[in-house]
Amino acid sequence: MAPPTSTSTAAPNANTPLEGVRVIDCTQMLSGPFATQLLTDMGAEVIKIERPTRGDITRSVGPEIGDSGITAYFASLNRGKQSIELNMASEEGAAALESLAENADVLIENYRPGTMDKWGLGYENLREVNENLVYCSISGFLEGPYRDMPAFDMVVQALGGSMSITGQADGPPARPGIPIGDICAGMYAVIGITTALYNDEGQYIDVPMFEGLVSWLTERAGRTFVTEEPYPRQGTVHPSLAPYRTFETADGWFAVAIGSDDTWLGFCEAIDRPDLADDERFTVNNDRVANRDTLTDELEPIFANRTNDEWFDLFRDQGLPGAPVQNTVDVFEDEHLKESGTLDDLTIDGVDLPFPLCPIEFSGSTTRSGHEPPQLGEHTEPVLSGVLSADALDAVCGDTDTASE
Asked: 279 catalytic, yes or no?
C-alpha cells in the first residue's frame, strides 16, 4: 500500500512498524480511542475527528491535568493524535471527511450502527472514493436481536458472562476493575485492521464488544460445557488449582499461584513447612482442591507473619510464582516497569505522567513516544487547509449534537 499524502504537522514516526499508515479516527469514549492509541503508538498518523466546541466526551470527564484543559481520561487514550473539529452530520462536514478518506489507509468509527451511513459516510459510500480503504466499525453486537441496543462496557460485561464469575463466592457479581469490554473490542479492532493492511486490500471490518468478550471466556467456557454448570464465582480462588489465591500478609495481600505438584514441593520447602508436602490431604493437586479450606487454614497464619516485600523476595529467590497485590500507585513505581521502556513519560502543564505505551517489542523498529494529547481542534486548519477553502473550513466546524449517536 502506497504511503498516504500527509498534511500532518506532527513529528515523523521514524522507524515505527506502521510508519506511513494514515488513520481517520471517528471514535469517542474508550473502545475506539484505545484502538487508535495503539495504532498511534506503533507509528500510524491518526487524525481524530471531534465534535465542534465539545470534542470527545472524555474531554469533560475529570480530573483535569493541571490547568491544561485536558483530562486524564482523554490523555490516556489520545496521545500523539491530531485533532480536527468537524461536523460530520452536515453536508459540508461529510464532504470534508470524504476528501480525507481519499488519501487514508484506515477509517475507524464506533457510533451506533447506521449512524455513519445516515451521514453518507458508511463503507459503501467511501469505497467509491477509495477502494483500498480499510473501514472498521466497533459496535456493541453483531447482527441479531441485540444489534441496535446501546453498547456500554457494563452492559456487555453483564451479558458476556465476565461479571458472573467476578467477585467473592458469597457476594454479588462484580464488574472487573478495568473496562474489559471496551478494551477487548479495541484490541480486536487493531488485529482486524493490521490483518487487512497486511492483505493489502480494502474491506469492511465489524468488531463487536459482546461477542469479543464472550471469546475471552476460553477455559471458563470449556469448563462450563463439560460440567454443564455455571463457572463459579470464587474471588481470587481457582476452582481447579490449590493453593491459587491471595493471602493477607503483615502489610497487604500476596497472590500465590501453585500450578503443579512439583511447584507445591518447592513451595512447602520455601515456607519452612515440608510437613505439608507429606500430608496425604495435600499430596497432589486434586487432594489440595478437595481440602482447600483446611489448607487455607494452615497457610493464612504463615503469610500473616511476613510483609509483602519479604514474601516477594523469597518467592523470587526460590523461583516460585507469586507477587504482591499492587495498587495503581504502586505499579507505576515498580522498578521493572520503569526499566522495561513501556512508559511514555510526559509532562503536561507541569504534571509528570507516565502513560503506558503499547508494550509490543519489535526487533527492527520501535513504538512511538513523547507526544502529548492534542487540544480540541489543534490541527483543524493544517489538516483541512489542503482540501477546503477558508469559507468551507468555517462551515464544517459548525456545532452539532452527536452525543446520542
From this structure: no
